[in-house]
Amino acid sequence: MSLIYVSKLSKRYGNELILKDVNFKADEGEIIGLLGPNGAGKTTFIRLLNGVIHSDSGTITVSGFNPAAQGDEVRKISGIVTESAGLYHQMSGKENLEFFAGIYKVGAAKDQISRLLRLFDLEEHQAKLVGAYSTGMKKRLGLAKALLHNPKILFLDEPTNGLDPEGIRIVLSYLKKYNKETGTTILICSHVLHQLETVCTSFAFMDRGTIVEQGRLKELEEKYIKELEITLET
Ligand code: ATP
């Protein structure tokens, strides 16, 4: 049984069909790149997987739970990083983690916060206000925040936006390291294929509200990659 299983998923906003007949699956320990141009429906898909919004039809199972009916259960085992990351700029990095650890009721929070600050190379910046952090440091703190409760699955929406090439390389290498150490399944939404080539174990290509292909990069038919490269930044 897949950790994430989606079948014939559809979602409308008003009269507009945003997602149609989406099929998708993810196994434990995978790093999956969900690729597609702006407006393809990637963010909507992640919100459905987390039970933030509900589908009109189709099936979603996340670690055995139905997000629409068991959203709280899904959020207990998943972490999500959106573009803003929801950090408080007037608090230090460490204070942010302490604050969210309290909200998430993280056990042994002190040790967990120290571990994550170390893992994401933020130890020496922990007392600094987040407002004074670089974009890369904010991204790393956003990751630490999402990982406070040791989720089984991590959802990332465009985690490299706003970073320079070196910042992108650093953030992706942290993700790879974290996946290797913990086996956490990671789903990364992006519109930039080449950044993810060396990080992801498999890919799903989303275009105009549907997943047109999913599999390992090598196995994917050339035609889909070629078709989508027209709109994907390379
Ligand atoms: P991007 O990378 O630009 O965020 P995306 O692939 O994540 O793109 P979505 O944000 O899921 O795409 O948007 C898919 C479509 O759904 C877009 O046409 C968008 O305008 C529409 N949409 C998203 N959220 C809503 C909403 N709350 N109400 C109405 N339409 C919406």
Automatic annotation (TrEMBL):
Recorded superkingdom: Bacteria
GO function terms (MF aspect): ATP binding
Keywords: ATP-binding, Nucleotide-binding, Transport
Residue intervals of the ABC transporter domain: 4-233
Family: Belongs to the ABC transporter superfamily.
Protein name: ABC-2 type transport system ATP-binding protein
Source organism: Peribacillus deserti
Full protein segment contained here: 1 to 234 of 303
